[in-house]
Amino acid sequence: MRHQLAALDADVVGLQEVLRLDGDGASFDQASLVAEGLGYEIAYGRHPDALHPMGNAILSRFPIARSETRPLPAGGTDERRTVVFAELRTPHGDLPFFSTHLNWKLDEGHVREEQVRFLADAVFELAPPESSALPPVLVGDLNAEPASDEIRFLRGLTSLGRRRVYFADAFDLVGALPGYTFSRENPHAAPLREPNRRIDYVFVRGPDDRGRGEPLSARVCFDEAVEGVYASDHFGVVVALAT
Length: 243
Fold this sequence. Notes:
The chain is an alpha+beta fold. The chain has one domain (64-241): Deoxyribonuclease I, Chain A (4-Layer Sandwich). 17% of the residues lie in helices and 33% in strands. It has helices at 2-8, 30-35, 109-126, 149-154, 170-174, and strands at residues 12-23, 26-29, 41-45, 54-60, 64-71, 82-90, 93-101, 137-141, 168-169, 200-204, 215-221, 236-241. The strands form 3 sheets. It has a 6-stranded mixed beta sheet. Strands 2-1-4-3 form a 4-stranded antiparallel beta sheet. A two-stranded antiparallel ribbon has the order 11-12. It is globular and about 45 Å long.
């Protein structure tokens, strides 16, 4: 991953299932290892009751002015998911950036519906529409296909809880579909025998009236092995946005 991340040369990166171990004489910080020498600041967070020492991270070439982590609703399941927020000081204005990871099971769409409603509220609170900041960006492994109610809600195509929002799905607008990010071509994913799906996203609440946040390009990344090894069980998504 570090090799491909260096080649990608992205300004901001959202990561999920990032391992961090500390205590009892053991220390391991996966985000720092991945970002080492690449000029990134790091915001990291995980659920306080997480069953595993993994969380979400944001890597930024811009200064991180503040950050926080919020637990997502679990919907009665034993999964402990979060969203990590960071406010980034870019030359074009402050950028509110969110990295998240939703419940994974195919039959837990009802839980993901709760989670996307929570995310919409969090974005509205931390990046209010009347702010002069850049349009907020929400990225992550949402474990849901574009036709699902939870993704349709984020895209403004259906209501949940008598509420409707709108975020632009960058890949849907300017990427080459189908854009699978979970693929049986990936040997890390193949053993699960799940169908090929596009379940990783870059959303932006934009463009604004100045054209900021307009998706300019989008493509799948990390979809090739380096020395026979894939970076993850998921492929990534890289997007360029107007500033």
